[in-house]
Every structure is written in structure tokens, then in C-alpha cells.
UniProtKB/TrEMBL annotation:
PPR repeats lie at residues 105-135, 136-170, 237-271, 342-376, 445-479. Keywords: Repeat, TPR repeat, Transit peptide. This is Pentatricopeptide repeat-containing protein. InterPro entries: E_motif (IPR046848), PPR_At4g14850-like_plant (IPR046960), PPR_rpt (IPR002885), TPR-like_helical_dom_sf (IPR011990), TPR_rpt (IPR019734). It comes from Urochloa decumbens. Gene3D superfamilies: Tetratricopeptide repeat domain. TPR repeats lie at residues 238-271. Pfam families: E_motif, PPR, PPR_2. The lineage of its organism: Eukaryota, Viridiplantae, Streptophyta, Embryophyta, Tracheophyta.
Amino acid sequence: MLKQLVRSGKLAEARCLFDAMLHRDEVAYATLLTGYAAAADFPSAMALFSRLRASSPPHAAADPFVLSPVLKACASAAAGGADAGTLLHAAALHAFAVRSSAASSVFVSTALADAYAKAGRLELALRVFDEMPCKNAVSWTTLVASLARAGRRHDALRRFAEMRASGVACDSHACAAALTACADAGLLPRGRELHAICAKLGLDAVPYVANTLATLYARCGDIDRTLTAVSRMGSRDVAAWTTLIASYLQTGRAEEAVEAFVRMLRDESSNSASPNEYTFSAVIAACANIERVCLGEQLHAQAARRGLSHARTVANSLVKLYGRYGRLSAAADVFRESIVKDVVSWSAIISGFAQEGFSEEAFALFSEMRHHSSCPRPNEYTLASLLSVCASAAAMDAGCQLHALAVVAGLEHHAMVRSALIDMYGKSGSMSDADAVFCNRTRDDVISWTAMIVGHAEHGHSKEALGLFEEMCHVGLKPDHVTFIGVLAACSHAGEVELGLRYLNAMNKRYGVEPAKEHYGCVVDLLGRAGRIHEAQELIERIAADERDGVVWTSLLRACAARGVHETGKKAAERVMEAEPWGSGAHVAMANLYASKGQWREAAQERHLMKQKGVVKGAGWSSVEVGGDDRGVGVFVS
């Protein structure tokens, strides 16, 4: 009866039955201790073990089957983040095992090594393992898993090789632990060797191993082998479905991630694979990548029905989804309602307000985050979001403070933070500070080089921007589409028409970057500034129809207005109005063009048409920091 209650997880009833027993032998103690170990209830396990020792003779030998579940409960408590007292208990149990000659038991030694490893004392775990007189598959698996968990993946794989050489048969758990080490280290060739071993042993269809194989291939970007690994399972559990959905997401196949989730729900009744918080987190993130906010709301409702909407991973994905698409009220509600908030939670909500231009709210949240007792230091995403706010507002003082914070947090050399700092200093008018950040880099990356090129291009330093581009290619970095926007803008500012055209032609042929509407807009602007309006129009007509949006036509319209080219300007204005019917730019440009030609009636008609459509030209505005120590931001309008 005691065993049945423990197996059912009814530990309170099991304890009542245990206390009511007239005679309690070591089997009864071991049974109840096993239940406490499975429930990670170390205090109860330790109290029961102390009760047993108090009722036993002082020098009585310890039963390994009694001591090992106490150590397992200790390991579970350590893995759950228990305090330093857990380590002291492990050391005390170790001393008792040595004194009572129980340390020679493979069960006790294995549980002890696991407790030390999970308490963060891997060197003690290794010493216990090396002193074991005999080792079984569980001992080796515990060692391999502990090394992998501690980040010593190569040592984990070396120990796995020792296990095979010692003649101990590999089971599914040992193979899965070694595969986890390969996945964490990105060692695909070694992982494929282990896959072959698993296949020879007939373990590759075991769900635990198949899930680990799928994780390995997913992290290495091999979606086909991920699918193959998952398909080897007779029936997919929740881990398999979640790995599959996450794999689609990581490889940019968000639509297929959503489709896989739908299939999982259809199969839910037949195989009991109900989605958990990690499944919902992955599929909501997929919705964010494909602009399916409505579907994300439905998934939010599904998660709420299952009691998962307040889970940290789900809440973080929801905040990112709502924040990315301007649904800040919904994002803030989810954020405030989430019970546990980590640095990802704070970064997501701050980023949402920052990208929508709500700088005061973003900084207020950041201040709240820093005063929050349970939140760690800001990460690179937090700082990059706030630096982008400083860049858009040219708030250099706040940006300098964030720079100092990045230095303190050890994040100033992170590519994302470094590029955000360069952008902030550049847009605040201090390219010298941007140069200083760039020159202090510890490694080269495309983002930082691109930020410098764009910064110099925006400041009209065309020679420096183009020189940096050539140097960037020389050090072996491949430019991306943002890099070429800076390069073409630099050519436009410098009037280097032929060079700009050469770069446009080389983008696809030499660098493998397909020109987009932004690049064509830069070249149209380049040709227009040079007065080559006809060539600019021909270039627009040559590009794909879906790339001919308001950006390229606006560039042509500006050039026509500057040069007084009436007919082409009128055609460009019509195209801009089709793309942006409520925009005022095309109407104002045409009114100015008519006025420059002395066609006052047509100019007045254009203004009247604006009034009829309800199009209002936005007033120009700017801001400036004023005051001394208690400075504020003053906004003024023209």
C-alpha cells in the first residue's frame, strides 16, 4: 500500500500510513524516501533520514538503498537553486557514507556525485566519480550530463568515449547526454557520429534520444535532419512537437511552425501531446515574425484557457508580439500581469515603447527595472533599444550615461551595443565619439562597420564612408543591404554618379545582395541630383512592379521639383499619391513646382485638392535641451 501511494504521488497519505505502521523496516523508509526524492522535497527526506538514524544503533551500517534517495533529494534541491545549506548537507551525508562504508556503493556514489555537481561543486563530483570502485551506466551518464551542464562539453564527450571503451553498455540516457553536449557546442560532425552509434544500438527512435537529435540538428540549422529525427518516433510527445516548431522558427520558416502547431492540436486527443508553455512561446514568436497579430491573439486566448498565459516564456513572447506591432496597451497589460519577470521581459517592453518613439515611457520603465530587486543587469537588447531612442531624439547626455552603464556591465564590446552607440553618437552630431567607439572594437562585425559607413554618409563625409566600405571588404566582411544604403547615399552626396551605378550593378553580381526599393530610391536620388531625370525614370521603369512604391517615386518627384521638370514630376506625383493617398508630400511638391513655373492657378488647385481630401501638411518641429542641472527638453514648432 505504501509503494502504491508513493507511485501515485500521494505523499501526505503515504506519510500518514507510514506513521501508523507498528513496525517500520528499512524497506518502508527507503520507499517513502524515494517518494520525497521524486518530489524534490529534501527537508522532508532529511528529517525522515535523521529519524531513522536516531532510532538505529550508533555504529549501524547504512543501507545504500536508504541513503541514495536522500542524496537524490539533495541533488534535486541543489538543481532547484537551493541555498548554500544544501551543499553542507551533501558534505555531511558524504562524511556519513564514508564512515558507514556506504560510499563504496555505486548507487550512493552516483547520487553523491550528482548532488555535488548540481550544487556547483563539479570538482568534488569528479573526485567522487574517480574514486568509485565500479561504475555503471547511470554513473557514467551522470558524469557526462554534469560536464555538459557545466559548459565543459569537450570533457563530457571525452568521458563518453571512456565509457564506451570501458565496456559499459550505452543506454538512451547516456547517448542523449552526449548529444546534448554536441548540440550546446554546435559540434555537428561529432553529433552525426553519435547519431550513427544510436542508430546501430536501435536507440534513435527512443523519444528522449530523438528529441535530443532534433535539437542538435535544429541548432545547427539542418531542418531536414531535424524532421527526420522527429519522424523516427512512433508517436510525438510534447517535447518532439516543441522542438519541431522551434526548429522551423529558428530557420525562418515561421508559417510552417504555425502549421506544425495546428497539426499538434489535431493530434492532441490521440497522443496526449498537449502544448506546454515552451510550445506556446515558440508559436507566438512565429506569429510575430510573419505579422499575424490576430493569430497571436487567438494563441493568447488558448494559453489563457490552459493556465499558461502568465508563464514567463509565454508572457515574454506576447509582449514582443504586441510591442512589435504597436499594441503597447496590450503589451503593457501582459507585462504587468506576468508573475515572474526576467531581463528578457523588461527588454521586450522597453523595446516596444522605444520603437514607437515613446522615449519618456521607455526610460521610465528602464528606471523601474533598475530599482526592481529581482531583475538582473540590463542586457544588450535593453541598452540597444534605449540607445536607439537617444539617437532618434539626439539626446547625447542620456546616451553617454547609457554608454557608461554598458562599460560597467561589460557590454560595450557587444556588436549590437557598439553599433547602437555609433549610431547614437553619429545622429547626435559627434562623429569623433563614434570613431572612438569604433576604433576600440575587439573584433570586426558587419553591423559596426555599417553603422560607421551610414554615419559618415549622413554627415556628408562621402570620402570616409566609401573608404570604410572598401576597407570593410578588404578585412573579409560581407556587406549587407543596409551597408549599401550607406554606400549609395555617400555616392549621392559626393555626386559620384558612375561609381554609384557601378555599386548598384555589383550588389547582386559580386556581393550577393539583391537590390531593394531603398537602394533604387538612393540611385534615383543620385541621378536626380545630377540632373539625369530621364535616366532616373528609365531605372524606375526597369525595376520590378512591386518595388516601385512611394519611396522611389518620391525620390524622382523631389528631383523633378528641384529641376523644374514638370511632366515627369506630375507623373511621379500621381504614383506617389496612389501609393500614399493621405500623404501631403506629393501635393506640396507639385504646388511648389507649379509655383516655380509661375503657374499660380495650378498651384492653388493643388492646395485646394489637399483641402478637399483632408490632407494636412505636418508642421515642422524640433527639440532642444535647455536648463542647467535640472534640464528639460523644449519642443518648438514652425
